[in-house]
UniProtKB/TrEMBL annotation:
Protein's recorded name: S9 family peptidase
Record has Hydrolase as a keyword: yes
Residues in Peptidase S9 prolyl oligopeptidase catalytic domain copies: 483-694
Organism of origin: Candidatus Fermentithermobacillus carboniphilus
Biological process (GO), any one: proteolysis
Family, per entry: Belongs to the peptidase S9C family.
Amino acid sequence: MDTEKRPINSKDLWKLKFVGDVEVSPDGKAVVWVETVINERRNSYESSIWVSRKDPSGVFQKPTRLTYGRKSSEEGSLDRSPRFSPDGKYLAFLSNRSGKNHIWLLDMKEGGEARQLTQGDDNVSQIAWSPDGRHLAYVSREPKPKEDKKSDDIRTDKDVTVVTKLRYKANGTPGVVDPRPQQIFVVDVETGKSSQLTFGDFDNSSPAFSPDGKHVAFTSCREPDRELINIPDLWLVPVEGGEPRKLTDGRGPVYSPAFSPDGSLIAFLGHEHRDDGASNTEVLIIPRGGGEIRHLTGDFDRSVGCSIASDSRFDAGRVGPFWSRDGKYIYFVATDKGFSRLYRTSVETAKVEEVTEILRAPSGAAKSPSEESLSELPSVVTSMAFADPGDAPLTLAFVGGTALNPGDVFVIAGDRLQRVTRVNEDLLAQLELSRPEAFTFKAVDGLELEGWMMKPVGFNPGQKYPAVVEIHGGPHSTYGEAFFFEFQLLAGRGYGVFYCNPRGSAGYGDKFTHMVVGDWGGMDYQDIMSLKDYVDSIEWVDKTRVGVTGGSYGGYMTNWIVGHTDRFRAAVTQRSISNMYTKYGTSDIGFFANKRGMGGRDLWDSESFIMERSPIRYAPFVKTPILILHSEEDYRCPMEQAEQWYVALKRLGKTVEFVRFAGENHELSRSGKPWNRVERLERIAGWFDRFLKNGD
């Protein structure tokens, strides 16, 4: 072990910096992004926008800070979502500096202070420029009627709330969801005057201007059963006003529409398998006037987007689709096993090519200025931006990280790869981290599965170590070559860490992802137990001191495991599921997402199966000491799931503790209050210390 370095500790989390939501100027000469830091004194996050400009030789220079937000704020100053105007003169971004998230404009040519463009009591999101740079489209709530500030659907009168909608709650939204629909608006950049484009009791999102500026494409589900089955369609509305026209027919969800340069086609992300949550997200195109949908990634058999899990990321950026200037290619991010990379597909042939080969095998002119080794180059791309000016090289900017680095901004311009940021370089230089080692193993039915192991920091080959098995959420998430603070903390505390992608994980093809549907607690459980067999076979692991933990679906699986085997010495279950039957009615997604997860089985026709696959049924068989961590405002896996599990285990005399986090929701491990995130990490490590090290 390098004596100048030290193991990571839980409060190092507060020192990390996070980059995300990258954007490229139209001429490819500037790159901007959002940098998020933790203010541990205020127990909050602060984000600002940074820029790097290209010098005459084509090299992007040292980053400088563009925005500073509010000077002081207990809730954190947040600037985000930077978007260049088509001529590059203005940078629009969202900021909470006026108390709500609104659009602000920064003059990139003249400089000076940013000016607020939109007004009002409601937050603004999803901004998009018109081709002439005179307008911005955005999404916000339907304005409250002037004559009556109360809603017709949910009326709040003192302590009374009347609910008439099915989808009335959402994780991250305390109380009930505002019933006013999300509408598309257009604001005049010069005057700040806004006009509403969409109307009716329907949510609308993802506005995108046509190249001629006459129409805005957007997504919306307007079917009568939209509260039961919400499948957004693609719509087109005239900018001058009028009735929207529906272009798709509900065969599958539509996300992120983007017009081709000539305006004849619209690309979007989605699939044509109704509301199937396990299907690959694809790149599709449709004529502007509607008609046949073409699949441009159908034979690729990978899902568009980054599904690689991490607890060290703040990146709300885009993953595509981005059109090349000539309209021949569409660029996007996709997950392939434990990696996510940049790809492009041919509009004519639908042939998919990886364009991040330059990242994994740089040579000659493609080497980055500092000559990074292959191991330091990005293995997980989380978002991207694109500029194809025509008179200059095509520029791809992206956020990429590795298992040893949460993420930085990179740029490919022509044949040159450049690393633009090194936001955590000083901190990482102090830390002795554990490098994950990939391996494969066989499931009980012969299916090959991929996993990773992390040796304890200060590893001595002649010593036996305790170990922890980590289980991801989803179940359609993915573990891979990404930085995971929790894993590094456990390795730094002397544990081996093992994790894998059981059947159901994304990134291994559509068939693999669907293998868990209707079989939670079945072969996926056997996959984790096969991983346990592999762990037990590792010479340096003390197989009598192996723990297990996971969150969300991983928490479900942790609960399921301890009810079916005592092969783990200790367990920590996080934001978990114990009773699938009650979750159907208490979760914000239970009645549709968990119904899908159970293979379409519903409460009244499959009660016995749903309870059979609920961990609480097996509480009497639990022998493993278990710690329950749960957030009180978690509406995805509601607190009642933890309460039921705790009460059942406590009544039965099991070794169990219950830790509740007030004011937190399902995202505690990723974006919870900084002090609570550290508390959570210490609780996890402390429980394993107690039962895997101290012999309790």
